[in-house]
Design a protein that fits this description.
Elements: H1 5-37, E1 42-47, H2 56-60, H3 64-67, E2 69-74, H4 88-99, E3 105-109, H5 115-125, E4 126-127, E5 133-136, H6 140-147, E6 155-159, E7 162-165, E8 170-173, E9 176-178, E10 199-200, E11 209-213, H7 220-229, E12 234-239, H8 249-260, E13 264-269, H9 282-287, E14 290-291, H10 297-310, H11 314-321
Parallel strand pairs: 1-2, 1-3, 3-5, 5-6, 11-12, 12-13, 13-14
Antiparallel strand pairs: 4-10, 6-7, 8-9
Helix pairs in contact: 5-10, 7-8, 10-11
């Protein structure tokens, strides 16, 4: 039966109305979903190095409903990643600490070269952290979006769409980071919320921590010559494989001498992907080298700096190096 003009007009009006209501409902649902995804609405972006994408602020200023509200600060002087000194970590911690109660999450843009060292250092220096702190080198916008939608209370590295524990991150290429011995962070794999009060700690810029990598031919003379210029406060030894290195009497004698002089020493592996538990050679341990287990070189280096600045008793430092403070090592069951 053919419809009259008035009936057709009514049908069209009803159809348009239905479509409009459907579109409006979808928009409201999308807006609601966006709001639900934004768990952290106050994000502080700290540019200490690295690179903001061109026109970043202009591009994303009008899209804060997708990210949550964020502001940014540029630390001066800029940290040159290739010339980073541990004392510069204090500036980052001071900036976070001064804004800690005013923001829900933090994104730190730093240079790629030493990003893993900085992530490890902040992991230890920010005690009882209860908010996300995400380090990134270039993927600033995606990192802010992730920061607005996670409650993981850790220092993390954002790379290739994943959040990696800061003190487990290592560079796997010239453009990315990975965590070979621990999965990407989720609510199931992250640290539990802290029970204690948040505290920001510093490091001592004058502490001298060096890294010595095992190589064929390394001997006691090499170690002595290295120490002759300036005695370090601590040494991170990068051992072969599962903890191997020279165990002749001359080499171990130098290690024993360094331990008696109060030098903190820890062994880690040159191998990033550990397929079985790492254990330092018993003779190294007897000589005074601590077992770093599966800690990364970056984590061991940063952890020693943190402990040297905040623990006076060297014997206690040895005990704490063997404890899992921030998820930096997997302890044997």
């Amino acid at each position: 039966m053919a419809l009259g003009r008035d009936e057709r007009t009514t049908l069209i009006a009803l159809t348009v109305g239905a479509i409009t209501m459907t579109i409006l409902t979808l928009c409201l649902v999308k807006a609601k979903n966006r709001r639900e995804l934004i768990l952290n609405n106050r994000i502080h972006v700290i540019q200490a190095g690295g690179n903001f994408e061109h026109g970043f602020l202009e591009t994303y200023e009008k899209q804060k409903n997708l990210f949550g509200n964020f502001d940014s600060v540029v630390l001066e002087p800029h940290i040159n990643s290739g010339e980073l000194e541990p004392g510069e970590w204090n500036g980052l911690v001071a900036e976070i600490d001064s804004k800690y109660r005013s923001y829900d999450a933090f994104v730190i843009v730093v240079g790629r070269s030493t990003l893993a060292y900085t992530a490890s250092a902040l992991s230890f220096m920010l005690e009882n952290l209860g908010k996300p702190v995400i380090l990134v080198d270039e993927e600033v916008a995606p990192a802010i979006k992730v920061a607005s939608s996670t409650r993981i209370p850790e220092v993390m590295v954002f790379s290739d769409g994943n959040l990696i524990r800061g003190c487990k991150a290592v560079p796997w290429s010239t453009s990315g980071f990975s965590s070979p011995n621990y999965p990407a962070l989720t609510e199931k794999t992250c640290l539990r919320p802290p029970s204690g009060a948040y505290i920001a700690r510093g490091v001592n810029p004058k502490s001298k921590v060096i890294v010595v990598r095992m190589f064929p031919g390394i001997d006691a003379k090499y170690i002595n010559n290295t120490m002759a210029k300036e005695m370090p406060n601590a040494i991170v030894f990068q051992m072969y494989g599962l903890g191997y290195g020279p165990t002749n009497d001359d080499f171990l004698g130098v290690i024993t001498m360094l331990a008696k002089k109060g030098v903190v020493m820890v062994s880690v592996s040159q191998v990033e992907q550990m397929n079985q538990p790492y254990e330092a050679n018993d003779r190294f341990i007897a000589a005074g080298i601590l077992d770093g287990r599966d800690m990364t070189t970056e984590a061991a280096f940063a952890k020693i700096h943190y402990l040297l600045a905040n623990v006076e008793d060297r014997k206690l430092i040895g005990s704490l190096m063997s404890q899992n403070l921030r998820g930096e090592m997997v302890l044997p069951e």
